[in-house]
Amino acid sequence: YRRLHARDTRLSEFNRTERKAMLGSYTKVLFVRDPFHRLIASFLQGMGISPSFSSFVQEVLDAGMHNSSVAWKPVVSLCRPCLIQYDYVVMFGFLRQELGHLLRRAGLPAGKLPPELTDSQVQWTYRWLSEQMFSELSAQQKKQLSHFYRWDLAAFPFSSSFLSD
Q1: Is residue 144 situated within a structural domain?
Q2: Which PANTHER family match (predicted)?
Q3: Which of 47, 90, 130, 134 is 20 to 30 A off residue 60, Cα-Cα?
Q4: Looking at the domain assignment, is residue 56 inside a domain?
């Protein structure tokens, strides 16, 4: 596929036959993360110019779906999990366990994963951060965020997400 190596070539630019052949020849892995955790990470990395998390969230909501950064855009709108049959869906929080499995399936040594952070430490940290950040939001913002990420929440089992409540 000539256009395959072109920078920023989107899957939608290929015709149906090319897409089917291309997708059938790859192992497709989708990494997903609680959308609220993605927002927190984006804020902490300084991706917005807002002084507070609440004002950052308002910027995201005001930008809407079409003007959103890929850092916090709903995954369903980016990766089309209903149209592409992914071979693996790996959820943040189970990364260490799932990556070991993927590496073994690919015939690579799975014992080389970095030991620095365990998934339970990451989950505990994000749970604490989520509680703090969620308390800064108004009831209206919470409702709007749940609506903004409704398809991600429906497509993936983020049962402990603050946006699922």
Answers
A1: yes
A2: CARBOHYDRATE SULFOTRANSFERASE
A3: 90
A4: yes
Domain-embedded: residue 164: no
Sign of the Cα torsion 110, 116, 120, 126 reads: negative
Contact indicator for 94, 106 with CB cutoff of 8 Å:
no
CA-nearest of 90, 83, 110 to 30 is 90
Query: What six digits make up the tokens of 152?
Result: 């991600």
| Model confidence, pTM | 0.76
Length of the chain: 165
Q: Is residue 2 part of a domain?
A: no
Distance, CA of 134 to CA of 163 (rounded, Å): 9
pLDDT digits (tens, 9 = 90+) for 5-35: 556 677 778 888 888 888 888 888 888 989 9
Please answer whether residues 69 and 77 qualify as being in contact, where contact means their C-beta atoms are separated by less than 8 angstroms: no
Using CA atoms, how far apart are residues 132 and 24, in angstroms rounded to an integer? 43
* Residue range 73-82, pLDDT digits in tens: 999 888 888 7
Q: How many domains does the chain have?
A: 1
Which domain range does residue 109 map to? 11-155
